[in-house]
Amino acid sequence: MSEMKEAAIIGSGFGGSISACRLAKKWPGEVVVLERGKRYPMGSFPRTPHDFARNFWNVPKEDRKAGMGASADETHGLFDLRNYKGIDAVLCAGLGGGSLIYANVYMEPPEAVFDERWPASVKKPALAPYYRVAKEVLGARPIPRNQDPRRTITRTELFASVAKEMGKKSELVDINVFFGKDFNDPLAIGHQDKNRYGAVQTSCVYCAECDIGCNTQSKNTLDLNYLFAAEHRYGAQILTEHLVEKIVPVNADHEDDPSADGAFGYRVYYDDLRPGSRASGSLLAKRVVVSAGALGSTELLFQCRDIHKTLPRVSTRLGQRFSGNGDFLSFVINGKREVNPNYGPVITQRIDYGLFTNPTPGHSFIMEDASYPAFTAWFTEGIKPGILKFGSVRRAIKRLWGWAKGWTTGSVGAAFSEILAGDLSQNTSVLLCMGLDKANGVMTLDKNGHLDVAWPVRDNRSLYDGIVAAARQFKDKVGGHFLSTPTWWWPFRQNVTVHALGGCALGVSASTGVTSADPSTLGQVFGYRGLYVIDGAIIPTAVGANPTATISALAEMAAEGITGVAPDAHL
Question: Is 0.85 topped by the overall pTM?
Answer without folding.
Answer: yes
